[in-house]
TrEMBL record, chain A:
Keywords: Cell membrane, Membrane, Phosphate transport, Transmembrane, Transmembrane helix, Transport. The chain crosses the membrane at residues 20-42, 76-101, 122-145, 151-173, 215-237, 273-293. Part of the binding-protein-dependent transport system for phosphate; probably responsible for the translocation of the substrate across the membrane. The keyword Transport applies. It comes from Megasphaera paucivorans. SUPFAM superfamilies: MetI-like (SSF161098). One of its GO terms (biological process) is phosphate ion transport. Pfam families: BPD_transp_1. Belongs to the binding-protein-dependent transport system permease family. CysTW subfamily. It is a multi-pass membrane protein. GO terms for cellular component: plasma membrane. It is found in: Cell membrane. This is Phosphate transport system permease protein.
TrEMBL record, chain B:
GO terms for biological process: phosphate ion transport. Residues 1-19 form the signal peptide. Residues 33-273 form the PBP domain. Keywords: Cell membrane, Lipoprotein, Membrane, Palmitate, Phosphate transport, Signal, Transport. It is found in: Cell membrane. The keyword Hydrolase does not apply. It comes from the Bacteria. This is Phosphate-binding protein. Part of the ABC transporter complex PstSACB involved in phosphate import. GO terms for cellular component: plasma membrane. It is a lipid-anchor. Pfam families: PBP_like_2. It comes from Megasphaera paucivorans.
Amino acid sequence: MNPIEIAVKNAHRDERAARLLITICGIGAALVPFFIGGFLLLKGSDTFLIFGHSLGEFLLSGQWAPSDTAVGGGHVGAAMFLSGSLVTCGLALLISLPLSISTAIFMTEIASPRTRRLIQPAVELFTGIPSVVYGWIGLTVLIPFLRHFFIMPYGFSLLAAGCVLAVMIFPTITTMSADAMAAVPKTWREASYGLGATRWETISRIVIPAARGGIFTGVILGLARALGEALAVAMVIGQMKVFPTSLFLPASTLTTAIASDMGGAMEGGEYSAALWTMALLLFLLSFLFIFVIHRINRASQLKGRA
Amino acid sequence: MKLKKLIFIALAAVMVVGAAGCGSQQKADGDKSSSAAVSGSITGSGSSALLPLVKDAADKFKIDNQGVSISLNAGGSGTGLKQIADGSVDMGNSDVPAETKLSKDQVAKLVDHKVCVMTVATIVNPDIGQVVKSLTNQQLQDIFTAKITNWKEVGGPNEAIILVTRPQTSGTRALFKEYAINGAEESSNKSLETDNSGLLVQSVAQNKGAIGYVALPYLINDKTVSTIAINGVAPSLENTYNGTYAVWGYEHIYTNKEPKAAVKAFLDFVLSDTYGQRIEELGYGVSSKMQTKEVH
Protein backbone atom coordinates (compact mmCIF):
# COMPACT_ATOMS: atom_id res chain seq x y z
CA MET A 1 0.00 0.00 0.00
CA ASN A 2 1.38 3.38 -0.86
CA PRO A 3 1.44 6.18 1.68
CA ILE A 4 -1.44 8.01 0.07
CA GLU A 5 -3.72 5.00 0.35
CA ILE A 6 -2.82 4.60 4.03
CA ALA A 7 -3.56 8.24 4.68
CA VAL A 8 -6.92 7.95 2.94
CA LYS A 9 -7.77 4.84 4.92
CA ASN A 10 -6.85 6.49 8.22
CA ALA A 11 -8.87 9.51 7.34
CA HIS A 12 -11.91 7.33 6.64
CA ARG A 13 -11.45 5.46 9.90
CA ASP A 14 -11.21 8.70 11.86
CA GLU A 15 -14.26 9.96 10.08
CA ARG A 16 -16.31 6.91 11.02
CA ALA A 17 -15.18 6.90 14.64
CA ALA A 18 -15.86 10.59 15.09
CA ARG A 19 -19.24 10.22 13.42
CA LEU A 20 -20.20 7.40 15.76
CA LEU A 21 -19.06 9.29 18.86
CA ILE A 22 -20.88 12.46 17.92
CA THR A 23 -24.04 10.57 16.96
CA ILE A 24 -24.11 8.83 20.33
CA CYS A 25 -23.57 12.11 22.21
CA GLY A 26 -26.15 13.95 20.14
CA ILE A 27 -28.89 11.37 20.43
CA GLY A 28 -28.11 10.75 24.10
CA ALA A 29 -28.36 14.43 24.96
CA ALA A 30 -31.56 14.87 22.99
CA LEU A 31 -33.14 11.95 24.84
CA VAL A 32 -32.49 13.36 28.32
CA PRO A 33 -35.56 15.67 28.39
CA PHE A 34 -37.74 12.75 27.39
CA PHE A 35 -36.34 10.62 30.21
CA ILE A 36 -36.95 13.45 32.66
CA GLY A 37 -40.45 13.92 31.32
CA GLY A 38 -41.15 10.20 31.59
CA PHE A 39 -39.85 10.10 35.14
CA LEU A 40 -41.98 13.07 36.18
CA LEU A 41 -45.00 11.48 34.56
CA LEU A 42 -44.35 8.27 36.47
CA LYS A 43 -43.92 10.06 39.81
CA GLY A 44 -46.53 12.76 39.26
CA SER A 45 -49.31 10.42 38.22
CA ASP A 46 -49.30 8.81 41.70
CA THR A 47 -51.46 11.66 42.99
CA PHE A 48 -54.23 10.63 40.61
CA LEU A 49 -53.69 6.90 40.22
CA ILE A 50 -52.68 5.81 43.73
CA PHE A 51 -54.20 8.49 45.95
CA GLY A 52 -57.29 8.94 43.79
CA HIS A 53 -57.41 12.73 43.47
CA SER A 54 -58.99 14.33 40.45
CA LEU A 55 -57.21 16.65 38.04
CA GLY A 56 -59.86 19.25 38.79
CA GLU A 57 -59.07 19.15 42.50
CA PHE A 58 -55.35 19.52 41.84
CA LEU A 59 -55.68 22.46 39.45
CA LEU A 60 -58.64 24.33 40.87
CA SER A 61 -58.92 23.67 44.61
CA GLY A 62 -57.21 25.86 47.15
CA GLN A 63 -57.24 23.26 49.89
CA TRP A 64 -53.64 22.20 50.39
CA ALA A 65 -53.21 19.62 53.14
CA PRO A 66 -51.67 16.42 51.75
CA SER A 67 -50.95 13.80 54.36
CA ASP A 68 -47.31 12.84 54.71
CA THR A 69 -48.02 9.11 54.76
CA ALA A 70 -48.37 6.34 52.21
CA VAL A 71 -52.05 6.03 53.17
CA GLY A 72 -53.14 9.39 51.80
CA GLY A 73 -56.52 10.96 52.43
CA GLY A 74 -55.48 14.63 52.45
CA HIS A 75 -56.21 17.47 50.06
CA VAL A 76 -53.93 18.34 47.16
CA GLY A 77 -55.38 21.58 45.76
CA ALA A 78 -52.41 23.38 44.20
CA ALA A 79 -54.39 26.27 42.72
CA MET A 80 -52.80 28.86 44.99
CA PHE A 81 -49.31 27.83 43.96
CA LEU A 82 -50.24 27.76 40.28
CA SER A 83 -51.87 31.19 40.47
CA GLY A 84 -48.91 32.49 42.50
CA SER A 85 -46.54 31.32 39.77
CA LEU A 86 -48.60 32.84 36.98
CA VAL A 87 -49.07 36.17 38.76
CA THR A 88 -45.37 36.58 39.61
CA CYS A 89 -44.40 35.73 36.02
CA GLY A 90 -46.96 38.14 34.61
CA LEU A 91 -45.83 40.88 36.96
CA ALA A 92 -42.17 40.30 36.07
CA LEU A 93 -43.04 40.53 32.39
CA LEU A 94 -45.06 43.71 32.91
CA ILE A 95 -42.09 45.39 34.61
CA SER A 96 -39.43 43.96 32.35
CA LEU A 97 -40.94 44.20 28.87
CA PRO A 98 -40.97 48.02 28.41
CA LEU A 99 -37.43 48.26 29.79
CA SER A 100 -36.14 45.42 27.63
CA ILE A 101 -37.71 46.71 24.42
CA SER A 102 -36.42 50.23 25.08
CA THR A 103 -32.94 48.94 25.74
CA ALA A 104 -33.05 46.82 22.58
CA ILE A 105 -34.19 49.82 20.49
CA PHE A 106 -31.49 51.96 22.02
CA MET A 107 -28.84 49.34 21.32
CA THR A 108 -29.76 48.71 17.69
CA GLU A 109 -31.25 51.98 16.46
CA ILE A 110 -29.93 54.85 18.51
CA ALA A 111 -26.62 54.09 20.19
CA SER A 112 -23.37 54.67 18.32
CA PRO A 113 -21.38 51.50 17.63
CA ARG A 114 -19.00 52.38 20.46
CA THR A 115 -21.75 52.81 23.05
CA ARG A 116 -23.28 49.61 21.81
CA ARG A 117 -20.07 47.74 22.35
CA LEU A 118 -20.20 48.94 25.96
CA ILE A 119 -23.84 48.14 26.64
CA GLN A 120 -24.04 44.71 25.07
CA PRO A 121 -21.56 42.98 27.43
CA ALA A 122 -23.16 44.77 30.37
CA VAL A 123 -26.56 43.32 29.47
CA GLU A 124 -25.07 39.89 28.89
CA LEU A 125 -23.36 40.07 32.26
CA PHE A 126 -26.80 40.06 33.88
CA THR A 127 -27.43 36.48 32.76
CA GLY A 128 -24.36 35.19 34.52
CA ILE A 129 -25.31 36.42 38.00
CA PRO A 130 -26.44 33.43 40.10
CA SER A 131 -30.02 33.52 41.36
CA VAL A 132 -28.97 33.23 45.00
CA VAL A 133 -27.23 36.58 44.62
CA TYR A 134 -30.39 38.17 43.21
CA GLY A 135 -32.38 36.66 46.06
CA TRP A 136 -29.97 37.82 48.71
CA ILE A 137 -29.82 41.36 47.37
CA GLY A 138 -33.61 41.32 47.16
CA LEU A 139 -33.80 40.22 50.78
CA THR A 140 -31.37 42.78 52.17
CA VAL A 141 -31.99 45.78 49.89
CA LEU A 142 -35.33 45.49 48.12
CA ILE A 143 -37.46 44.29 51.04
CA PRO A 144 -36.49 47.03 53.52
CA PHE A 145 -36.83 49.52 50.66
CA LEU A 146 -40.38 48.38 49.83
CA ARG A 147 -41.32 48.32 53.49
CA HIS A 148 -40.13 51.89 53.81
CA PHE A 149 -42.07 53.29 50.86
CA PHE A 150 -45.27 51.26 50.84
CA ILE A 151 -47.69 50.29 53.58
CA MET A 152 -47.10 46.58 53.80
CA PRO A 153 -46.92 44.28 56.83
CA TYR A 154 -43.87 42.20 55.94
CA GLY A 155 -41.98 43.50 52.93
CA PHE A 156 -42.01 39.94 51.64
CA SER A 157 -44.51 40.22 48.81
CA LEU A 158 -45.56 39.43 45.27
CA LEU A 159 -44.21 42.82 44.27
CA ALA A 160 -40.75 41.96 45.60
CA ALA A 161 -40.79 38.64 43.73
CA GLY A 162 -41.97 40.36 40.56
CA CYS A 163 -39.15 42.92 40.78
CA VAL A 164 -36.45 40.30 41.34
CA LEU A 165 -37.76 38.16 38.48
CA ALA A 166 -38.04 41.21 36.21
CA VAL A 167 -34.32 41.87 36.67
CA MET A 168 -33.58 38.20 36.02
CA ILE A 169 -35.49 37.97 32.72
CA PHE A 170 -34.47 41.42 31.47
CA PRO A 171 -31.26 40.28 29.71
CA THR A 172 -33.00 37.36 27.95
CA ILE A 173 -35.70 39.54 26.43
CA THR A 174 -33.28 42.36 25.66
CA THR A 175 -30.70 40.26 23.81
CA MET A 176 -33.29 38.30 21.84
CA SER A 177 -35.11 41.49 20.83
CA ALA A 178 -31.90 43.33 19.94
CA ASP A 179 -30.76 40.42 17.77
CA ALA A 180 -34.08 40.35 15.97
CA MET A 181 -34.05 44.12 15.41
CA ALA A 182 -30.49 44.08 14.16
CA ALA A 183 -31.50 41.40 11.64
CA VAL A 184 -34.08 43.66 10.00
CA PRO A 185 -32.53 44.57 6.60
CA LYS A 186 -31.05 48.03 6.37
CA THR A 187 -32.80 48.58 3.05
CA TRP A 188 -36.18 48.42 4.79
CA ARG A 189 -35.21 51.28 7.05
CA GLU A 190 -33.84 53.24 4.09
CA ALA A 191 -37.03 52.66 2.17
CA SER A 192 -39.03 53.92 5.12
CA TYR A 193 -36.90 57.06 5.44
CA GLY A 194 -37.18 57.48 1.66
CA LEU A 195 -40.96 57.65 2.02
CA GLY A 196 -40.54 60.50 4.46
CA ALA A 197 -41.03 58.57 7.72
CA THR A 198 -39.39 59.89 10.84
CA ARG A 199 -37.04 57.82 12.94
CA TRP A 200 -39.71 56.98 15.51
CA GLU A 201 -42.16 56.02 12.74
CA THR A 202 -39.53 53.76 11.20
CA ILE A 203 -38.84 52.09 14.53
CA SER A 204 -42.48 51.62 15.55
CA ARG A 205 -43.96 50.77 12.14
CA ILE A 206 -41.12 48.90 10.45
CA VAL A 207 -38.45 47.60 12.79
CA ILE A 208 -40.58 46.37 15.70
CA PRO A 209 -43.24 44.64 13.56
CA ALA A 210 -40.52 42.98 11.49
CA ALA A 211 -38.70 41.81 14.63
CA ARG A 212 -41.89 40.60 16.30
CA GLY A 213 -41.05 36.90 16.10
CA GLY A 214 -37.71 37.39 17.86
CA ILE A 215 -39.25 39.60 20.53
CA PHE A 216 -41.94 37.00 21.28
CA THR A 217 -39.32 34.28 21.50
CA GLY A 218 -37.40 36.39 24.00
CA VAL A 219 -40.55 37.01 26.03
CA ILE A 220 -41.37 33.33 26.20
CA LEU A 221 -37.83 32.29 27.10
CA GLY A 222 -37.94 34.94 29.82
CA LEU A 223 -41.27 33.65 31.08
CA ALA A 224 -39.91 30.11 31.17
CA ARG A 225 -37.00 31.28 33.27
CA ALA A 226 -39.27 33.22 35.61
CA LEU A 227 -41.58 30.24 36.01
CA GLY A 228 -38.74 27.90 36.93
CA GLU A 229 -36.90 30.18 39.34
CA ALA A 230 -37.19 28.91 42.91
CA LEU A 231 -34.36 30.17 45.05
CA ALA A 232 -34.52 33.91 44.47
CA VAL A 233 -38.31 33.92 44.64
CA ALA A 234 -38.39 31.84 47.81
CA MET A 235 -36.18 34.39 49.55
CA VAL A 236 -38.43 37.38 48.87
CA ILE A 237 -42.00 36.13 48.43
CA GLY A 238 -42.58 35.16 52.08
CA GLN A 239 -44.01 31.72 51.22
CA MET A 240 -47.38 32.22 52.78
CA LYS A 241 -49.80 29.56 51.62
CA VAL A 242 -52.51 31.86 50.30
CA PHE A 243 -53.88 32.95 46.95
CA PRO A 244 -52.11 35.98 45.48
CA THR A 245 -54.64 38.65 46.40
CA SER A 246 -52.50 41.76 46.79
CA LEU A 247 -49.18 42.92 45.39
CA PHE A 248 -48.14 43.90 48.88
CA LEU A 249 -48.81 40.56 50.57
CA PRO A 250 -46.80 37.32 50.55
CA ALA A 251 -47.78 34.30 48.48
CA SER A 252 -46.28 31.02 47.26
CA THR A 253 -45.37 29.63 43.86
CA LEU A 254 -45.09 26.08 42.51
CA THR A 255 -41.32 26.16 42.74
CA THR A 256 -41.10 27.58 46.27
CA ALA A 257 -43.67 25.06 47.52
CA ILE A 258 -41.68 22.18 46.06
CA ALA A 259 -38.38 23.49 47.39
CA SER A 260 -39.63 24.02 50.94
CA ASP A 261 -41.23 20.63 51.44
CA MET A 262 -39.31 18.18 49.27
CA GLY A 263 -36.78 17.45 52.01
CA GLY A 264 -39.23 16.59 54.74
CA ALA A 265 -41.85 14.77 52.70
CA MET A 266 -41.53 11.02 52.73
CA GLU A 267 -40.79 9.59 49.30
CA GLY A 268 -43.76 7.51 48.21
CA GLY A 269 -46.22 9.35 50.43
CA GLU A 270 -49.12 11.49 49.33
CA TYR A 271 -47.28 14.73 50.12
CA SER A 272 -44.32 13.94 47.92
CA ALA A 273 -46.60 12.61 45.18
CA ALA A 274 -48.41 15.96 45.16
CA LEU A 275 -45.04 17.76 44.94
CA TRP A 276 -44.02 15.55 42.01
CA THR A 277 -47.27 16.39 40.28
CA MET A 278 -46.44 20.07 40.70
CA ALA A 279 -43.03 19.40 39.14
CA LEU A 280 -44.79 17.65 36.26
CA LEU A 281 -47.03 20.69 35.84
CA LEU A 282 -43.97 22.95 35.62
CA PHE A 283 -42.45 20.64 33.03
CA LEU A 284 -45.62 20.68 30.94
CA LEU A 285 -45.83 24.47 31.14
CA SER A 286 -42.29 24.93 29.86
CA PHE A 287 -43.02 22.33 27.19
CA LEU A 288 -45.97 24.48 26.15
CA PHE A 289 -43.73 27.55 26.02
CA ILE A 290 -41.26 25.84 23.69
CA PHE A 291 -44.13 24.66 21.52
CA VAL A 292 -45.42 28.24 21.23
CA ILE A 293 -41.95 29.48 20.27
CA HIS A 294 -41.83 26.98 17.44
CA ARG A 295 -45.26 28.02 16.24
CA ILE A 296 -44.25 31.68 16.24
CA ASN A 297 -41.04 31.01 14.37
CA ARG A 298 -42.83 28.95 11.76
CA ALA A 299 -45.49 31.60 11.33
CA SER A 300 -42.95 34.37 10.86
CA GLN A 301 -40.95 32.25 8.40
CA LEU A 302 -44.06 31.63 6.31
CA LYS A 303 -44.82 35.33 6.32
CA GLY A 304 -41.30 36.15 5.24
CA ARG A 305 -41.64 33.85 2.25
CA ALA A 306 -44.96 35.32 1.16
CA MET B 1 -6.36 14.97 14.20
CA LYS B 2 -8.35 17.05 16.63
CA LEU B 3 -11.05 14.40 16.74
CA LYS B 4 -8.47 11.73 17.38
CA LYS B 5 -7.27 13.75 20.32
CA LEU B 6 -10.82 14.06 21.61
CA ILE B 7 -11.38 10.33 21.46
CA PHE B 8 -8.07 9.78 23.15
CA ILE B 9 -8.99 12.14 25.97
CA ALA B 10 -12.34 10.44 26.41
CA LEU B 11 -10.71 7.02 26.59
CA ALA B 12 -8.08 8.30 28.99
CA ALA B 13 -10.77 9.73 31.23
CA VAL B 14 -12.58 6.40 31.29
CA MET B 15 -9.38 4.60 32.19
CA VAL B 16 -8.47 7.03 34.95
CA VAL B 17 -11.92 6.72 36.50
CA GLY B 18 -11.73 2.97 36.24
CA ALA B 19 -8.28 2.86 37.80
CA ALA B 20 -9.38 5.12 40.62
CA GLY B 21 -12.26 2.78 41.31
CA CYS B 22 -9.94 -0.22 41.48
CA GLY B 23 -7.50 1.68 43.66
CA SER B 24 -9.99 2.57 46.32
CA GLN B 25 -11.29 -0.95 46.44
CA GLN B 26 -7.82 -2.32 47.04
CA LYS B 27 -7.22 0.22 49.74
CA ALA B 28 -10.40 -0.73 51.54
CA ASP B 29 -9.42 -4.40 51.42
CA GLY B 30 -5.97 -3.59 52.78
CA ASP B 31 -7.41 -1.64 55.68
CA LYS B 32 -9.69 -4.44 56.64
CA SER B 33 -6.86 -6.91 57.11
CA SER B 34 -4.37 -4.63 58.85
CA SER B 35 -6.14 -2.33 61.32
CA ALA B 36 -7.40 -3.37 64.74
CA ALA B 37 -10.02 -0.62 65.02
CA VAL B 38 -13.27 -1.02 63.15
CA SER B 39 -13.33 -0.30 59.48
CA GLY B 40 -15.71 -0.30 56.59
CA SER B 41 -18.14 2.21 55.26
CA ILE B 42 -21.17 3.78 56.89
CA THR B 43 -23.87 5.56 54.97
CA GLY B 44 -26.55 7.71 56.52
CA SER B 45 -29.26 10.09 55.41
CA GLY B 46 -32.20 11.98 56.84
CA SER B 47 -33.02 14.85 59.18
CA SER B 48 -31.26 18.11 58.44
CA ALA B 49 -31.69 19.17 62.07
CA LEU B 50 -29.65 16.19 63.23
CA LEU B 51 -27.07 16.34 60.46
CA PRO B 52 -24.66 18.83 62.11
CA LEU B 53 -24.41 16.57 65.17
CA VAL B 54 -23.91 13.36 63.21
CA LYS B 55 -21.32 15.07 61.03
CA ASP B 56 -19.43 16.31 64.07
CA ALA B 57 -19.57 12.85 65.64
CA ALA B 58 -18.35 11.30 62.40
CA ASP B 59 -15.30 13.59 62.31
CA LYS B 60 -14.40 12.75 65.91
CA PHE B 61 -15.04 9.04 65.38
CA LYS B 62 -12.76 8.88 62.36
CA ILE B 63 -9.80 10.14 64.38
CA ASP B 64 -9.60 6.82 66.23
CA ASN B 65 -10.99 4.68 63.42
CA GLN B 66 -9.16 5.73 60.32
CA GLY B 67 -10.36 2.75 58.31
CA VAL B 68 -13.95 3.90 58.46
CA SER B 69 -15.49 6.03 55.77
CA ILE B 70 -18.73 7.75 56.66
CA SER B 71 -20.89 9.46 54.08
CA LEU B 72 -23.87 11.48 55.26
CA ASN B 73 -26.68 13.20 53.45
CA ALA B 74 -29.47 15.46 54.56
CA GLY B 75 -32.71 15.12 52.64
CA GLY B 76 -35.15 15.24 55.50
CA SER B 77 -36.54 12.85 58.08
CA GLY B 78 -38.92 11.30 55.58
CA THR B 79 -36.11 10.43 53.22
CA GLY B 80 -33.99 8.98 56.01
CA LEU B 81 -36.78 6.72 57.23
CA LYS B 82 -37.69 5.61 53.74
CA GLN B 83 -34.08 4.80 52.89
CA ILE B 84 -33.37 2.80 56.04
CA ALA B 85 -36.64 0.92 55.53
CA ASP B 86 -35.68 -0.16 52.02
CA GLY B 87 -32.08 -0.81 53.06
CA SER B 88 -30.31 1.75 50.87
CA VAL B 89 -28.49 3.32 53.85
CA ASP B 90 -27.03 2.00 57.14
CA MET B 91 -28.50 4.76 59.31
CA GLY B 92 -31.74 6.66 58.87
CA ASN B 93 -31.82 9.91 60.88
CA SER B 94 -35.17 11.28 61.92
CA ASP B 95 -36.72 13.97 64.11
CA VAL B 96 -39.90 11.97 64.41
CA PRO B 97 -40.55 8.37 65.49
CA ALA B 98 -40.63 5.95 62.55
CA GLU B 99 -44.23 5.02 63.41
CA THR B 100 -45.44 8.38 62.15
CA LYS B 101 -44.21 7.85 58.59
CA LEU B 102 -43.70 4.11 58.01
CA SER B 103 -46.01 1.12 58.12
CA LYS B 104 -46.01 -1.28 61.11
CA ASP B 105 -44.19 -4.02 59.18
CA GLN B 106 -41.43 -1.63 58.18
CA VAL B 107 -41.00 -0.30 61.73
CA ALA B 108 -40.77 -3.83 63.12
CA LYS B 109 -37.57 -4.40 61.14
CA LEU B 110 -35.82 -1.33 62.56
CA VAL B 111 -34.04 -0.51 65.80
CA ASP B 112 -34.44 2.97 67.26
CA HIS B 113 -31.36 4.66 68.80
CA LYS B 114 -32.32 7.81 70.67
CA VAL B 115 -29.04 9.65 70.20
CA CYS B 116 -29.99 12.99 71.70
CA VAL B 117 -32.78 15.35 72.68
CA MET B 118 -33.82 18.38 70.69
CA THR B 119 -35.51 21.15 72.62
CA VAL B 120 -37.62 23.56 70.63
CA ALA B 121 -37.73 27.16 71.86
CA THR B 122 -40.26 29.85 71.05
CA ILE B 123 -38.42 32.94 69.86
CA VAL B 124 -39.52 36.51 69.35
CA ASN B 125 -38.09 39.75 68.08
CA PRO B 126 -36.15 41.48 70.92
CA ASP B 127 -38.59 44.40 71.08
CA ILE B 128 -41.27 41.94 72.19
CA GLY B 129 -38.89 39.90 74.32
CA GLN B 130 -38.26 42.89 76.59
CA VAL B 131 -41.94 43.03 77.54
CA VAL B 132 -43.41 39.56 77.08
CA LYS B 133 -41.41 36.96 79.01
CA SER B 134 -43.78 34.04 79.18
CA LEU B 135 -46.88 32.72 77.44
CA THR B 136 -49.27 29.92 78.28
CA ASN B 137 -49.95 27.01 75.94
CA GLN B 138 -53.38 28.47 75.27
CA GLN B 139 -51.94 31.86 74.36
CA LEU B 140 -49.40 30.24 72.05
CA GLN B 141 -52.13 28.20 70.41
CA ASP B 142 -54.24 31.33 69.87
CA ILE B 143 -51.25 33.18 68.46
CA PHE B 144 -50.26 30.44 66.01
CA THR B 145 -53.84 29.82 64.91
CA ALA B 146 -54.19 33.59 64.38
CA LYS B 147 -56.94 34.05 66.95
CA ILE B 148 -54.72 36.58 68.69
CA THR B 149 -53.17 38.95 66.17
CA ASN B 150 -51.85 41.78 68.30
CA TRP B 151 -49.23 41.64 71.05
CA LYS B 152 -51.31 43.89 73.33
CA GLU B 153 -53.75 40.99 73.84
CA VAL B 154 -51.05 39.06 75.72
CA GLY B 155 -49.63 41.99 77.64
CA GLY B 156 -47.21 43.29 75.02
CA PRO B 157 -46.95 46.52 73.03
CA ASN B 158 -49.57 47.49 70.44
CA GLU B 159 -47.93 45.69 67.55
CA ALA B 160 -49.20 43.22 64.98
CA ILE B 161 -48.00 39.64 65.45
CA ILE B 162 -46.00 38.23 62.55
CA LEU B 163 -45.89 34.44 62.45
CA VAL B 164 -42.73 32.87 61.08
CA THR B 165 -43.00 29.10 60.80
CA ARG B 166 -41.52 25.98 59.24
CA PRO B 167 -43.06 23.89 56.44
CA GLN B 168 -45.71 21.29 57.19
CA THR B 169 -43.25 18.41 56.77
CA SER B 170 -40.71 19.82 59.24
CA GLY B 171 -39.87 17.80 62.35
CA THR B 172 -39.46 20.96 64.42
CA ARG B 173 -42.96 22.03 63.46
CA ALA B 174 -44.34 18.60 64.39
CA LEU B 175 -42.84 18.87 67.91
CA PHE B 176 -44.04 22.42 68.37
CA LYS B 177 -47.52 21.49 67.22
CA GLU B 178 -47.85 18.57 69.58
CA TYR B 179 -46.28 19.94 72.77
CA ALA B 180 -46.58 23.73 72.56
CA ILE B 181 -49.89 24.48 70.91
CA ASN B 182 -51.96 21.49 72.05
CA GLY B 183 -51.96 19.79 68.66
CA ALA B 184 -53.71 22.67 66.91
CA GLU B 185 -52.98 23.19 63.23
CA GLU B 186 -51.10 26.42 62.58
CA SER B 187 -52.87 28.77 60.26
CA SER B 188 -50.52 28.39 57.32
CA ASN B 189 -52.37 31.05 55.37
CA LYS B 190 -51.29 33.70 57.87
CA SER B 191 -47.66 32.77 58.40
CA LEU B 192 -44.39 33.33 56.60
CA GLU B 193 -42.74 30.00 55.96
CA THR B 194 -39.01 29.42 55.85
CA ASP B 195 -37.52 26.09 54.86
CA ASN B 196 -34.41 26.65 56.92
CA SER B 197 -34.06 27.22 60.68
CA GLY B 198 -31.14 29.61 60.27
CA LEU B 199 -33.17 31.86 57.98
CA LEU B 200 -36.07 31.66 60.40
CA VAL B 201 -33.95 33.16 63.18
CA GLN B 202 -32.88 35.92 60.79
CA SER B 203 -36.48 36.63 59.80
CA VAL B 204 -37.62 36.87 63.42
CA ALA B 205 -34.71 39.17 64.21
CA GLN B 206 -35.51 41.51 61.31
CA ASN B 207 -39.29 41.76 61.60
CA LYS B 208 -40.79 43.75 64.46
CA GLY B 209 -43.46 41.76 66.26
CA ALA B 210 -42.28 38.45 64.82
CA ILE B 211 -42.63 35.13 66.63
CA GLY B 212 -41.33 31.72 65.57
CA TYR B 213 -39.81 28.53 66.92
CA VAL B 214 -36.47 26.89 66.45
CA ALA B 215 -34.33 24.13 67.93
CA LEU B 216 -31.92 25.18 70.70
CA PRO B 217 -28.71 24.44 68.69
CA TYR B 218 -29.59 27.36 66.42
CA LEU B 219 -29.66 29.72 69.40
CA ILE B 220 -26.18 28.93 70.72
CA ASN B 221 -24.21 32.19 70.50
CA ASP B 222 -27.20 34.01 69.08
CA LYS B 223 -28.18 37.34 70.61
CA THR B 224 -30.45 38.61 67.84
CA VAL B 225 -33.67 37.06 69.15
CA SER B 226 -35.22 36.45 72.59
CA THR B 227 -36.68 33.21 73.85
CA ILE B 228 -40.09 33.02 75.49
CA ALA B 229 -40.91 30.79 78.45
CA ILE B 230 -43.95 28.55 78.27
CA ASN B 231 -46.09 28.66 81.45
CA GLY B 232 -43.12 30.35 83.11
CA VAL B 233 -40.63 27.60 82.26
CA ALA B 234 -37.69 28.75 80.16
CA PRO B 235 -36.58 26.61 77.21
CA SER B 236 -33.28 25.23 78.48
CA LEU B 237 -31.55 21.86 78.63
CA GLU B 238 -31.92 21.69 82.46
CA ASN B 239 -35.67 22.22 82.24
CA THR B 240 -35.87 19.61 79.52
CA TYR B 241 -33.94 17.09 81.63
CA ASN B 242 -36.09 17.58 84.73
CA GLY B 243 -39.27 17.30 82.71
CA THR B 244 -40.70 20.78 83.33
CA TYR B 245 -40.28 22.05 79.77
CA ALA B 246 -42.41 19.99 77.42
CA VAL B 247 -41.46 20.99 73.89
CA TRP B 248 -38.72 18.51 73.07
CA GLY B 249 -38.27 15.30 71.15
CA TYR B 250 -35.75 12.54 70.82
CA GLU B 251 -33.58 12.58 67.75
CA HIS B 252 -33.53 9.09 66.31
CA ILE B 253 -30.99 7.15 64.35
CA TYR B 254 -32.65 4.05 62.97
CA THR B 255 -30.67 0.97 61.93
CA ASN B 256 -31.75 -2.49 60.95
CA LYS B 257 -31.80 -5.28 63.56
CA GLU B 258 -28.20 -6.37 63.02
CA PRO B 259 -26.10 -3.37 62.03
CA LYS B 260 -22.56 -3.80 60.70
CA ALA B 261 -19.70 -3.65 63.21
CA ALA B 262 -18.71 -0.17 62.06
CA VAL B 263 -22.25 1.19 62.47
CA LYS B 264 -22.53 -0.35 65.93
CA ALA B 265 -19.20 1.11 67.02
CA PHE B 266 -20.21 4.53 65.70
CA LEU B 267 -23.51 4.49 67.62
CA ASP B 268 -21.72 3.38 70.80
CA PHE B 269 -19.41 6.33 70.34
CA VAL B 270 -22.27 8.81 69.87
CA LEU B 271 -24.01 7.51 72.99
CA SER B 272 -20.84 7.51 75.12
CA ASP B 273 -20.37 9.89 78.05
CA THR B 274 -17.33 11.54 76.47
CA TYR B 275 -19.25 12.48 73.38
CA GLY B 276 -22.22 13.47 75.56
CA GLN B 277 -20.34 16.60 76.66
CA ARG B 278 -19.86 17.59 73.05
CA ILE B 279 -23.57 17.03 72.39
CA GLU B 280 -24.41 19.59 75.08
CA GLU B 281 -21.87 22.03 73.67
CA LEU B 282 -23.71 21.87 70.37
CA GLY B 283 -26.99 22.68 72.09
CA TYR B 284 -28.63 19.26 72.04
CA GLY B 285 -29.61 17.30 75.15
CA VAL B 286 -28.08 14.00 76.23
CA SER B 287 -30.62 11.17 76.18
CA SER B 288 -29.25 9.41 79.28
CA LYS B 289 -29.77 12.54 81.41
CA MET B 290 -33.48 12.61 80.80
CA GLN B 291 -35.25 12.11 84.14
CA THR B 292 -38.68 11.89 82.63
CA LYS B 293 -39.85 8.57 81.24
CA GLU B 294 -42.03 10.21 78.63
CA VAL B 295 -41.31 9.39 75.03
CA HIS B 296 -41.58 12.30 72.63
